[in-house]
Amino acid sequence: MVEIKTDAALEAMREAGRVVARALAAARDAAGVGVSLRELDEAARAVLTEAGARSPFLGYRPSFAPTPFPAVACVSVNDAIVHGVPDGYRLRDGDLVSVDCGAELDGWTGDAAVSFIVGTPRPADLELVKATREALDAGIAAATAGNRIGDISHAIGAVAEAARCGMPRDFGGHGIGRRMHEDPHVPNRGRPGRGFPLRHGLVLAIEPMLMAGGSDAYRTDPDGWTLRTADGSRAAHIEHTVAVTDEGPRVLTLP
């Protein structure tokens, strides 16, 4: 069931979104050569604790997962696409890192992700992150009242296709509100003019995941969570929580 949010709910979600933005910034600031993935998670966790927010990631267990998620942030490195479990791996110069984090505050949820490079960047990684950001921007621009979910999906897919990047077909964006994952599903590919109609008060987590190798194939690590490109190519994941409004799309997870 799709829930349309009131304007008061949008304001509450904006507050949760600000917490998410601060948590992601803290994780990014903590990243550096020699820093462990657990330390990035701890930086995000400290922000949530200070804000009095709950993590919708910690303990989350969807149907595909063998165990509850053990952290407040997903940290995916290099060929990991999404859902990376923060562990003792220490970042190296040139690593491509994606951090995905959520916050629940006063009963409302925000969800966002960033991708960045530690130390000396590879030109190809810079292009991948740029294309992923452009795909997100295109999806957000299409999140206007009167459009449909397929318009968002088509906009994202067009950027990925132009960049010759793959995307995991089974994963995409989603509705968000009182829970992290709500209806409707937001595929990262689709046909314009199709799908659920967009109207004022609909809130979506829009999240392109681009894979540099061009293939859509992926595999799952033994941890049951981490998705990796099947060909070993690098991946990037960038996300915002976005409200559809009569005045245009409103990004709720900006700082």
Instruction: Report the oligomer.
Output: single chain
Question: Largest sheet, order of strands side by side?
Answer: 6-5-7-12-13
Poorly predicted regions are: none
Q: Look at the structure and name the CATH superfamily.
A: Creatinase/methionine aminopeptidase superfamily
Tell me the span between the first and last alpha carbons. 30 Å
How many domains would you count in the coordinates? 1
CATH architecture: Alpha-Beta Complex
Query: What is the gyration radius calculated from CA atoms?
Result: 17 Å
Helix content: 25-40%
Helix/strand class: alpha+beta
Given this structure, which CATH class is correct?
Alpha Beta
H/E series? HHEEEEHHEEEEEEEEE
What's the β-strand tally? Answer: 13
- State mean pLDDT (0 to 100 scale): 98
Strand content of the residues, in percent? 15-25%
CATH topology: Creatine Amidinohydrolase
Total helical segments? 4
The main β sheet shows up as: 5 strands, antiparallel
Account of the 3D structure:
This protein is of the alpha+beta class and 255 residues long. The chain has a single domain, classed as Creatine Amidinohydrolase, CATH 3.90.230. Helix content is 28%, strand content 23%. It has helices at 7-30, 37-51, 123-141, 149-162, and strands spanning 73-77, 80-82, 96-105, 108-117, 173-175, 182-186, 203-206, 209-211, 218-220, 227-229, 235-237, 240-243, 250-251. Strands 6-5-7-12-13 form a five-stranded antiparallel sheet. A three-stranded antiparallel sheet has the order 1-3-4. It has a three-stranded antiparallel sheet with strand order 2-10-9, with no helix packed on it. The two termini are 30 Å apart.
